[in-house]
Amino acid sequence: MALVESRSIDYVPLAERRGKVHHLWPVWFMGDAHLATLATGAISVVGGLDLFWSSLAVTGGCAFGTVLMALHCTQGPHLGLPQMIQSRPQFGYIGALLVWVVALVTYIGFNALNQSLAASTLHELVGLPEAPAIILFGLVAALVAGIGYDVIHATQRVLAYIMLAALAVYTAGFFATVDLGTLLRPGPFKSTLFLVQFFAAAGYQLSWSIYVSDYSRYLPREVGIRSAFLWTFCGAFIGGTWMMLVGAFAGATFTDPDIVVALRRSADSMFGGFGMVMLASSFFGLITITSLNLYGSSLTLLSVIDSLRPVRLGAPARLAALVVCLVASLSLSLAMGGNVLHGLEAFLGILVYLFTPWTAINLADFFFVRRGRYSIRAMFMADGIYGRWNWRGLTAYAVGFIAMIPCFKTELYVGPVAKSLGGADISMLVGLPVAAIVYLLLCRSMNLAAELAMIPDLDRNLETEPVR
């Protein structure tokens, strides 16, 4: 289905649901098996942590973040809604714009980083200068997004097997050419770098949460929570962990500030010319995930505008939104100089701060408060049962965010808890329980029975009459 066609940005009726749940595996395997993930895994080894401790941090962080991300994915088949729309019951029709704007910034930020990594890859492959490479890559990704959502998913499935083969060969070369006893010997434990890598990996995986259910919502409702969770977790965890470990190894053995160069050199040291194969395989995955980000950001932008002022959906609006998001990411990428790894580390830190309270509240509401019982129509009513502003969700978000501040570690501010831990940032471990507990306590006074009683009338004829 092409972007310029009339696919709804909102509810997917049951009659239009299709696909198989195991297709989530290649989508999220390839969602992670590309160069941006590689760069995430190299953060700590480039900073000075040895490969043994970096590998443990990568594996643990990926597992932690992917569990949260996969739980969000289960909401897609159940509700048939994009993730951001489903935030309205917790934050309100207008209040949900808080997380929508954050999501939009995330899309654009990741695409800017992707374009910078793609430029380095194109320079290594064909010698193309940075600025033209960034622009060319962005235009190709936008074209793929315009060609179609379904085409992207079909391509992801093919690329997943190609990338599996490339990673298998790389891993075999790793075990054949490396002195494991030396390389994996534990060195001094550096808690700050360990936690930086752990939460960078967790935050990277968590960042998919803002739109993971956008792609599972096209599956039949009968898929169920368990199957959606397992297929998403396996794809994202295997792809993310494997690729980050490759990045950690490449960064540890070839300490080049450009992780793309480090990957090529490490692969060439195993098999002559294999570096170019690894770069090409990773590069194609970068195109499809950038296309998904452009697709998602354009729909999020339209949703934001539509919440404030009704928009006539159609090809002109969709293409205009796509162009705006493309220009924003290209501008940021062209303006972003210096070390991509440093920029990625700072960006992932900000994402952890912004998304941690939201993910806690959203999951607490879905699994413990409303237990999946929502009115689809009410989510599109500014003055419906969910209201314009939901003070419970907004209060819990604010409290969760404020509770994290003493744990922050940024270039501009280091909180007292982070200082006492030698610069380690544990804010995610604080924000998750605080935001969830505050939200659950505030919801104890909510008249949930009255709300649930209204849902049958509100959602009558849902499958035969337009939602909007």
UniProtKB/TrEMBL annotation:
The chain crosses the membrane at residues 27-46, 52-71, 91-113, 133-151, 158-177, 189-207, 228-250, 270-296, 317-340, 346-368, 389-406, 426-442. Keywords: Membrane, Transmembrane, Transmembrane helix, Transport. Its main location: membrane. It is a multi-pass membrane protein. Gene3D superfamilies: Hydantoin permease. One of its GO terms (molecular function) is transmembrane transporter activity. InterPro entries: Pur-cyt_permease, Pur-cyt_permease_Fcy2/21/22. Pfam families: Transp_cyt_pur. It is found in: Membrane. Belongs to the purine-cytosine permease (2.A.39) family. This is Allantoin permease. It comes from Novosphingobium fuchskuhlense.
